[in-house]
Amino acid sequence: MEAEKGIKTETRRRWKGEGGFTLVELLVVLEILGVLVAIVAANFTGLIGGSQTTAASAEVNIVQTAVDAKMADQSMATTTAITTATSDMTTAAGGFGLYPTYMRGTVSKGTYTVDTAGKVTQASTGY
Fold this sequence. Notes:
By secondary structure, the chain is an alpha+beta fold. It is built from two helices and three strands.
């Protein structure tokens, strides 16, 4: 019992001697955290922009490959030009006519045109 009382007294003495953190120390820590958050947010935004560019580039390659496959499959040297940008991969309303044989989806994220030689051009990325 006497030892327990001595421990409590020693603990109280330690707590009274410590004053904790000052306001300046806390503000410095918050400032450092703010700078770190700003750096991370800037890098994250850059990653999103880069991934959207990569996705758009991949999609135009997919559409071009599908147009090439359709032209090869149907032994076409030229194709009907689609001069109005569209994301329609079906044959409706002047679409590409690539669904379901050459593409899985009926629409794409971006919009595309195609010339008579089969060259696909991306009009917008959809982002």
